[in-house]
């Protein structure tokens, strides 16, 4: 049984199921009991290097300190903005956590309702109060392009091991793509290419548990964008 589990990296598990008994470390949504790694949630068994964990099948995005997320401004106050990041509770962005000097009451000059922003989660306390920031490398107001929403539990599949899937998507569609850990993804490129990139991302979400998914996505993009056949698989590895 243990041997079969070690080989099947996409099997469905429920809380308490043994994920590994050979000494691997517990990853996300996993714990150790009696020397064996077990699942803490229902989902898909996921092995990465020497860790084994579970990708949840459903549920709200629960922010974790250090997460990079994409959110949308849903309310504006005199000294902060309220950002929807797909969590079950709001994420206030204070004027002290943006890269501009904002005078009291002047917040709408910098970020308006419906604007998308790339943020980092600073902390989440016991009362579920979130602190987010835009004061870090690469964090910014997102302009142009389009947003696509997928289940946050499928984000790791879009990125894939060593970033291979996301690198392939970028190279084959010639699009800029930024993936938020909350399941919000920004895609920017020529209309036709961006359309194909979005369809490919949704296909990854739908078929996340399929075998040979990278090859299936590669074939799909090639069928829509013949010029992408020039892509070299080796370029997708980081």
Which features would summarize this protein structure in a list?
OB fold (Dihydrolipoamide Acetyltransferase, E2P); 238 residues; six-stranded antiparallel β-sheet; alpha+beta; single chain; four-stranded mixed β-sheet; 5 helices
What features would you describe in this structure?
The structure is a single chain. With 238 residues, this protein is α+β, with helices and mostly antiparallel strands. The chain folds into 3 domains: 2-56, RNA polymerase II/Efflux pump adaptor protein, barrel-sandwich hybrid domain (OB fold (Dihydrolipoamide Acetyltransferase, E2P)), CATH 2.40.50; 68-142, Nucleic acid-binding proteins (OB fold (Dihydrolipoamide Acetyltransferase, E2P)); 146-236, K Homology domain, type 1 (Ribosomal Protein S8, Chain: A, domain 1). The chain is 21% helix and 31% strand. The protein has helices spanning 2-7, 155-159, 164-173, 191-206, 213-224; strands at 12-13, 18-20, 25-26, 30-33, 36-39, 43-48, 51-56, 68-76, 80-84, 91-94, 116-124, 130-133, 140-142, 146-149, 176-179, 184-188. The strands form 4 sheets. Strands 8, 9, 10, 11, 12 and 13 form a 6-stranded antiparallel beta sheet that branches. It has a 4-stranded mixed beta sheet with strand order 1-6-7-3, with no helix packed on it. A 3-stranded antiparallel beta sheet has the order 2-5-4. A hairpin with a 4-residue loop joins strand 15 and strand 16. It is flat.
């Amino acid at each position: 049984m243990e041997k079969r589990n070690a080989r099947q990296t996409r099997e469905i598990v429920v809380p308490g199921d043994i994920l590994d008994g050979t000494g691997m470390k517990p990853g996300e949504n996993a714990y150790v009991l009696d020397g064996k790694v077990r699942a803490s949630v229902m989902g898909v068994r996921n092995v990465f290097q020497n860790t084994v964990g579970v990708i949840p099948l459903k549920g709200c995005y629960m922010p974790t300190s250090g997460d990079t997320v994409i959110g949308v401004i849903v309310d504006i106050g005199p000294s902060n903005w309220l950002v929807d990041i797909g969590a079950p509770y709001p994420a206030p962005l204070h004027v002290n956590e943006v890269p501009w000097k904002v005078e009291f009451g002047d917040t709408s000059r910098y970020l308006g309702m419906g604007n998308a922003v790339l943020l980092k989660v600073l902390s989440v306390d016991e009362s579920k109060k979130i602190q987010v920031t835009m004061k870090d490398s690469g964090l910014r107001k997102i302009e142009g392009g389009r947003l696509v929403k997928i289940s946050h539990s499928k984000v790791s599949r879009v990125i894939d091991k060593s970033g291979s899937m996301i690198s392939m998507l970028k190279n084959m569609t010639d699009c800029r793509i930024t993936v938020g850990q909350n399941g919000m993804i920004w895609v920017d490129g020529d209309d036709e290419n961006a359309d194909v990139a979005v369809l490919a991302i949704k296909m990854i979400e739908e078929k996340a548990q399929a075998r040979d998914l990278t090859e299936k996505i590669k074939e799909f993009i090639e069928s829509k964008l013949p010029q992408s056949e020039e892509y070299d698989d080796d370029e997708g590895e980081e």
